[in-house]
Amino acid sequence: MKICSLVACATDILLALGLRKNLVGISYDCKVSGKPVVVDSIFDSSKMTSAEIDKTVKETYKNGGTIFSLDIDKINKLKPDIVFTQELCYVCALTPSQLKNYNFFRDAKIETIDPKNLTDLFKVILQVAEKTGTGTRGIKLVKKLKNELDSVKLVTKNSKTVTTACIEWLDPLFSAGHWIPEMVQTAGGKNLIGKRGAKSAEFHKSELLNKQPEYIIITPCGFSLEQAVQEYRKLVKSQPWWEKLKAFKNKTIFAVDSEYFVKPGPKVIDGVNILARIFHPEKFDSKFDRLFVQL
After folding, report:
1. What is the distance between the alpha carbons of residues 22 and 5, in angstroms, rounded to a whole number?
2. Which of 118, 145, 177, 245 is deepest in the core (most CB within 10 A)?
3. Residue 182 and residue 149: Cα distance in Å, rounded?
4. For residue 253, what is the enclosing H or E element?
5. CA-to-CA distance for 291 and 295, rounded, in angstroms?
6. Which of 117, 145, 171 is the last residue in one of the domains?
7. Do 270 and 164 share a structural domain?
8. What is the tens place of the pLDDT at every residue in 156-183?
9. pLDDT of residue 92
């Protein structure tokens, strides 16, 4: 079976199912070497601020465009049997409705994944496994991931709950939604901004100033850990209101590697462990410390 993945979380699931050799095409943000890239971004976000990216994305879609470049000729030559995409966010990856504008995939089945919480994440893993003939592996993988979550819950259930705000975009401010509030809860936190199962939403700084969360997690979608740190430090210099936050004064603002938070695949379970280590450092080991920075 030849598989093409247009979304990074599907690629992560496919790799976890042992299907690397079946993967014939990937998206630009999939962390896989040696595989043809069939979807690219129209701009290099690594050289832009979050405000510049936000402006570019909004203007592009306002004018009826797309921020993705699809190599149709390459895909047709690869002749995939199945293509994975997503319906969750038109900014994160191509959606089925966007794919309708292209004349290709004549013989390929388009499979859409659309998780909104941790329960959905496990269902999606089983869905991908079923569609790729790896059902037994999928069941074993889900069991393993659930056991890892249960291990975290066992440690945090009697721990002090810490109030938390997860920020998925810095300028403008966007809350983290979908499965991330559930990740926070599992790790021993209480999420104050953003709702479980709901989309990431823009919010005003007054929410942070009024609610004063004990911890703030910076996880800008698509940013590396280094990018997130740099962006935050630049904004703090130009936006002094950050200094009024309790978390700023207590040095409990953390930047994390967004790979483990915003992409709903097996790495999300590691994301829960990252949060647990941040909230309760005395109860969790240091193996995830390279994936976050205390600001």
Report:
1. 11
2. 118
3. 11
4. strand 253-256
5. 13
6. 117
7. yes
8. 988 999 999 999 999 999 999 999 999 9
9. 79
Tens of pLDDT, residue by residue over 21-41, are 999 999 999 989 999 999 999
pLDDT the model gives residue 102: 62
Contact 153, 201 (CB under 8 A): no
Domain harbouring 283, CATH code: 3.40.50.1980
Question: Can you tell me whether residue 237 is helix, strand or coil?
Answer: helix
243 Cβ neighbours under 8 A, 6+ residues apart: 236, 249
Per DSSP, helices labelled H in 101-204 are: 118-131, 135-156, 180-186
Q: How many domains does the chain have?
A: 2
| Alpha carbon separation from 94 to 7, 110, 132 (Å, rounded) | 8, 12, 21
Below-70 pLDDT ranges, the chain: 100-106
| Close Cβ partners of 253 (under 8 Å, ≥ 6 residues apart) | 215, 216, 218, 232, 245, 247, 294, 295
Task: Please tell me the predicted confidence (pLDDT) of residue 179.
Answer: 96
Residue 74 exposed, middle or buried by CB count within 10 Å (0-12, 13-18, 19+): middle
Residue 179's domain comprises: 160-294
**Nearest Cα residue to 266 out of 110, 137, 96, 133:** 137
Strands 37-41 vs 173-175: parallel, antiparallel or unpaired: unpaired
pLDDT given at position 89: 79
Q: How does 78-107 read in b/e, with b if 16+ C-beta sit within 10 Å?
A: bebebbbbbebebbbbbbeeebeeeeebee
Q: How far apart are CA 179 and CA 116, in angstroms?
A: 6
